[in-house]
């Protein structure tokens, strides 16, 4: 019985250490699905949906993540809480920006037109 309790307490302790960032604070992220403008393209004998590329900039103006054009499914990224700008190209090939605010949560879907 003591071994069982020791194993359980070791596992709990391990998960607590893994959930802390290097500075000792918990680090929370939200999964953000970024649905950019899309078009259908013919690829290897089938028509597929191709989503536009985009990049994300934080409040300080630093580019933190980018995504190229992707097929079939919109890109999913992981962001911490904060205010961001997403830059993407619309269907007229013009660079457009949109400000988003990411709050603590599990999932956020952003549709860009």
Describe this structure in words.
It contains one helix and ten strands; from the N terminus they run αββββββββββ. The strands form three sheets. A four-stranded antiparallel β-sheet has the order 5-4-8-9, with no helix packed on it. Strands 7-1-10 form a three-stranded mixed β-sheet, with no helix packed on it. Strands 2-3-6 form a three-stranded antiparallel β-sheet, with no helix packed on it. 9% of the residues are buried. The termini are far apart. With 113 residues, the chain is of the alpha+beta class. It has one domain: Immunoglobulins (Immunoglobulin-like).
* Strand content range: over 45%
| SSE class | alpha+beta
Rg computed from alpha carbons, rounded to a whole number of angstroms = 20 Å
Q: How helix-rich are the residues, as a percent range?
A: 10-25%
For the secondary structure, the number of strands is: 10
Integer average pLDDT: 80
Largest sheet: 4 strands, antiparallel
Tell me the count of domains: 1
Uncertain parts = 10-22
Q: Could you give the distance between the termini?
A: 60 Å
Strand order of the largest sheet: 5-4-8-9
CATH topology: Immunoglobulin-like
Please work out how many helical segments DSSP would assign: 1
- Multimeric state of these chains? single chain
């Amino acid at each position: 019985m003591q071994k069982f309790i020791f194993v359980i307490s070791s596992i709990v302790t391990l998960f607590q250490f893994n959930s802390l960032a290097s500075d000792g604070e918990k680090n929370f992220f939200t999964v953000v699905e970024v649905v950019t403008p899309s078009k259908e393209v013919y690829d290897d004998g089938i028509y597929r949906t191709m989503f536009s590329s985009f990049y994300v900039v934080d409040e300080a103006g630093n580019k933190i993540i980018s995504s190229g054009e992707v097929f079939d499914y919109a890109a999913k990224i992981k962001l911490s809480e904060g205010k961001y700008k997403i830059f993407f190209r619309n269907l007229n090939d013009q660079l457009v920006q949109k400000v988003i605010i990411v709050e603590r949560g599990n999932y956020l879907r952003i549709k860009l037109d």
